Amino acid sequence: MNTVLSFFRKLGPEMLRRTYEHTFLVFFAMAIAAAIALPLGIYLARTRRRRVVSAVLGAAGVIQTVPSLALISFIVLLFALVALPTIGTLPALVALVLYALLPILRNTYTGIRQVDPSVVEVATGMGMKPIQILFSVELPLSLPVIMAGVRISTVWTIGIATLCGLIGAGGLGDLILKGLRSIQMDYLVAGTVPAAVLAVTADWLLGRLERWLTPEGIRESHHSRVEGE
Amino acid sequence: MIRFDHVSKTYPGGVEAVRDLSLEVAEGETVVLLGTSGSGKTTTMKMVNRLIDMTTGRILIDGTDVKAQDPIGLRRRIGYAIQHIGLFPHMTIGQNIGVVPQLLQWPKEHIAERVDNLLAMVGLQPEEFRDRYPVQLSGGQRQRVGVARALAADPPIVLMDEPFGALDPITREELQNEFLALESEIRKTIIFVTHDVFEAAKMGDRIALLDAGRLQQLATPADLVESPANEFVDQFLGQHRFQLSLLTRRVRSVMPAAEVRLEKPAIGDRLRATDTLIEALDAFKKTAASALPVHDRTGYLGDLTKRHLLAAITEVLGEAGGAP
User: Fold this and answer.
1) What does B189-217 look like in DSSP terms, one character per residue?
2) Rounded to whole angstroms, how far apart are CA atoms A101 and A38?
3) Size of interface A-B (CB pairs under 8 A)
4) Which residue among A125, A140, A215 places its CB closest to the CB of B75?
5) Which residue, of B194, B216, B239, is where some domain finishes?
6) Angle, helix A2-46 to helix A139-160, in steps of 10 degrees
7) B224 and B281 share a domain?
8) Hey, of B51, B92, B99, B154, which one would you mutate to test binding to chain A, going by the most A CBs within 10 A of its CB?
9) How far apart are CA B133 and CA A215, in angstroms?
10) Distance (Å, whole) CA B127 – CA B133
């Protein structure tokens, strides 16, 4: 009991502050990534230019394959070349956004593409405008897939954001690094456990949001309720 | 009235889907576009609501060229039902039927009322089905909703692309019959696409038989069967000729003049002069009587004996090339 109390007395305030920084960083990275990937995914799903589609999805895929540590390092070097700040929130945010893009982009694209073509055909045949088809047919029907992309992306980003401690962007990675440098287990624990809790909580919250946003008629539970003639 | 005026459609790559097609669909008439896949029947239909734009020629609806009209507005005035139904899975049955009225910004209460009327019209209890989702319905029920949705805004013209194609034979026949009954009340101008020659004979006032994008013959089902315009039509009907004759010949055409009598018979089983021979045969199956009274709209015409009906059928079989 005493050890727990002294642990929190020593590290509690910093844990809170770092968790706040971490959440802040991830939240903004996700918001920016979604703001880019959603419209881009919609465009890719609707364009007839197959080349653009494979080029963009390919590029996003390549970014994904670069090890996160290397990506952060590259951005720092790149920023140094163009005289942008190389430490702090900005380079961290850029790296995180690049990482978060692919799952959202790919799921938005596939989500819209997997909408039953006959549904879209009827919507067109009944006189819906393209924008109406997008917002009242395609997006509602692809929402579960898009949201799954957002969930995966968020959980990854929470993990990768710990690396941003390396470039002075704060967050829980800062505690982990401190623990590593001074070989102190309590710092490591103070950084790792909140990061894990954050990831699980975010996943759960987004799952709830997904269920809440998913139109009733396409929720899984309905499929078992098909009735005969 | 819909008029096709030398309409052709060539797809990029040079495939000529429709070649120089001219035909008219009169107000309230059902014209069936019949043909195999690749005959151009679906392309022909989709050019009416501009899902596909023709390469040359004109399509006039009540004298106005469809190309001169905004496609969105045009489509909202034309009912549309397809084989895959395409119900919106995330909308309730009521919302699905209400899509076009909603697009046309009808008042809410008006839409709700219309939805209930339509559900009742296609044989689905409004209270039971209004708030269900498509996944909770059977194939036949979904198809009924698809038809109701096409009729939602009371369009004068309805396009139907194999609307009963995905159903089992029994449900299909049930829906065909119900639709015929419904259609006789609402009198729409209908273009109906199918590859099923029996469905065509049953649903169409006239049949336009297409092959490789060309119109082979445009005729009533009976005329198509009795006097095929060319060898293709003859071969297309082929081995179905006998059954088709039974489906298209009316009781009136085999009524023996001599047996007309003027006193009214007792109420009981009766035939309509417009019944097909197959329907007459079915009626005799259900009764022990050796003759049934025949009526038309003006009244009693005479009796048709079972023996006479069978003789007429044997004659049809002989004409169709089978052994009598």
Assistant:
1) EEEEEES-HHHHHHH-SEEEEEETTEEEE
2) 9
3) 91
4) A125
5) B239
6) 140
7) no
8) B99
9) 10
10) 13
- pLDDT digits over A176-188, tens only? 888 888 888 888 8
Does one domain contain both B154 and B66?
yes
- How does pLDDT run across B188-230, given as a tens digit for each residue? 999 999 998 889 988 889 999 999 889 999 988 888 888 888 8
Let me know if residue B324 belongs to a domain. Answer: no
Lowest mean per-residue pLDDT among A51-55, B112-116, B263-267: B263-267
Residue B244 is assigned to a structural domain of this protein: no
Q: DSSP 3-state assignment of B283?
A: helix
Structure tokens at A140: 């509602």
**Domain coverage including residue B292:** 249-319
Chain A positions in Cβ-Cβ contact with residue B141 (cut-off 8 Å): 229
**B114 and B33 both lie in a single domain:** yes
pTM score above 0.95: no
Strand order through the sheet with B56-61:
B16-25, B2-10, B56-61, B64-65
Q: What is the pLDDT of residue B261?
A: 57
- B171 domain-assigned: yes
Q: Given an 8 Å threshold on Cβ–Cβ distance, is B88 in contact with A118?
A: no
Question: Taking the CA of residue A36 as centre, how many other CA atoms within 13 Å lie in the half-sphere pointing to its CB?
Answer: 16
Residues 6+ apart with CB under 8 A from A10: A186
> Is residue B98 domain-shared with residue B204, that is, in the same domain?
yes
Domain of B86, CATH number, reads 3.40.50.300
Q: Are B160 and B192 spatial neighbours (Cβ–Cβ below 8 Å)?
A: yes
Subunit contact A126:B136, Cβ cutoff 8 A: no
Phi, psi of A84 (to 5 degrees): -100, 160
Chain B residues within an 8 Å CB radius of A120: 86
Q: Which residue of A has its CA nearest to B151?
A: A126
ipTM for the assembly: 0.79
Structural domains in chain A, sorted by start: 25-214 (1.10.3720.10)
Q: Chain B closest CA to A54's CA: distance in Å? A: 24
